[in-house]
Amino acid sequence: MSASVSIFNYVCLSLVLYLTLNGQNIAIQGASNGSPLQACVDMVPDHHVDAQTSASPFVATPSVTSTTNGTDVKLTLATKSGSDLTFKGFLVIAFNHANQTEGPIGTFSSVSDGQTINCPGVSANNAATHINSANKTSVTMDWTAPEGFVGTVLFKTTFAQNGGVFWVATPSSLVNFV
């Protein structure tokens, strides 16, 4: 056997062993301590698999459908009624429904089983994400609209059931600020 064939066989065997022993670390790059800032752009986690195309079994529910500026909105992330599924991770961002391309608006606070992060945008704490990969059935948080905001807010949430099963930018019901 030639030296180049032996080297090739050694490299292939080494690669197979490495992938076998470390395959889970390569296949799924989920962050158990929260979404990385790169996910702010398209809300897609770096899990190296495609998102689910079915309806999400999870929902983001605002506490009100209409309110005035200066009033916090409580947002609840939860399993849809009748489901016994849990989610491990989430990323939630609020958008001006009339112009979603302007990026995140408002600020999140008081995130149960989570934390705020600073996605690129005008305000700090403009997104919320998980802090661990424990199974969750419900997470609550407060959200405050930008000062003087009048319009309609849409919350979008990416839910990760696990590293290989997730739904991207699941829309909430709308909240009107008058």
From TrEMBL:
Record has Signal as a keyword: yes
One protein family per Pfam: Reeler
Superkingdom per UniProt: Eukaryota
Segment forming the signal sequence: 1-23
Keyword terms, alphabetized: Signal
PROSITE patterns: REELIN
GO CC annotation: membrane
Segments forming domain Reelin: 17-178
Keyword Iron-sulfur: no
Protein name as it appears in the record: Reelin domain-containing protein
Organism whose genome encodes this protein: Daphnia galeata
